What does this fold into?
Amino acid sequence: MTGLSLKGAISDDELTVLEDAGLLISEGKIISVGGFDELKYSHPEAEIHTLEGNHTCLPGFIDSHTHICFGGSRANDYAMRNAGKTYLEIAKAGGGIWDTVTQTRKASQETLTKHTVKLANRHLKNGTTTIEVKSGYGLSVDEELKMLRAIKKADTASSADLISTCLAAHMLPKDFVGSASEYLEEIGTNLFPILKEEGLTTRVDAFIEESAFSAEQIAPYFQEAKTMGFDITVHADQFSTGGSKVAVEFEAVSADHLEASTQTEIELLAKSNTIATALPGASLGLGCNFTPARKILDAGGVLSIASDHNPGSAPMGDLLTQAAILGAFEKLSNSEVLAGITFRAAAALRLEDRGKLTKGMLADLSIFHTSNYNEILYNQGNLKPCMVFKNGELVYNKH
Ligand code: NIG
Ligand code: FE
It folds into this structure.
């Protein structure tokens, strides 16, 4: 993927496929990529590992949007939704985001860490070596801190890299006495400084939606976050438009969801440096339309694809399957899909050291048992990696 551009459409003939190839790895990084024999002769000091049979090596996948730190399950919400119950009926029956907040508050930090590690390791086995993880089921200063500390511990305990994001602005907590603006002000004043002090995250997210926060309510919150040096990311245009405009105004690193985006929002995003993130797992979980990924790419935007793995709208949590399905529905080239879960997703997290198999990048690798890279998306997630490397270390081996 060396020569592929960050922005816009990519055709499959732009992708370089190296055959009889080798990677030279040292101290967790890729030193050189090229023909196996050539590398072998130019580096006689190298310890050699060969893979017998046909394999395809891709960069480790990067999931730039998940909520895998949570308590409880929303299997009953899912059943009710599919049986035709409305959002309001589900909320009345005790479902929705608030249900997960209640279950997450009941869980100890240790329990949350354990659960997050378990899910992170499942993603790792499926080839995902970097996973963004949001808070947002705590919704008070103390409970958000508990989540972000749990995520930090989980990062140490899992071989995958976990990148945390503060999503205290997920919804107005039902038990907060005061207005939405007062809640956001409290978070900005009392939580943001601790996030900095403890190094818990460098990223702040907000859900801009009729059921969550309005653009007007979020503006001073994002202003404060930006002033303090946080990167901004937004849950935007999921059911109604408005979020992506805020994202562009605040120079957010990414605007995620975008299922409701129209040509106006698509063009706005394409002209900006804000990365558009499609979350096909949320479309599959809710049974609604996909993000207009083809239009975003054709307008010249950057498309990242993430799983949104969460207990409510996206319970599946299988990035490769979802990216393959999005590709089929949105008519994306295989290169565009693979770019969306590798270097373009890395850009959505402002990570410059991963996502391509080139010199200097981390040796994060997903290896599949096939000689034809097209087999990987063709199998729609059912062809799993047989080996996964993180920082040059073998962390999963099915052989
Ligand atoms: O990204 N859209 C808002 N937040 C999550 C859903 C969280 C939940 O339902 O628990 C999302 O889809
Ligand atoms: Fe989300």
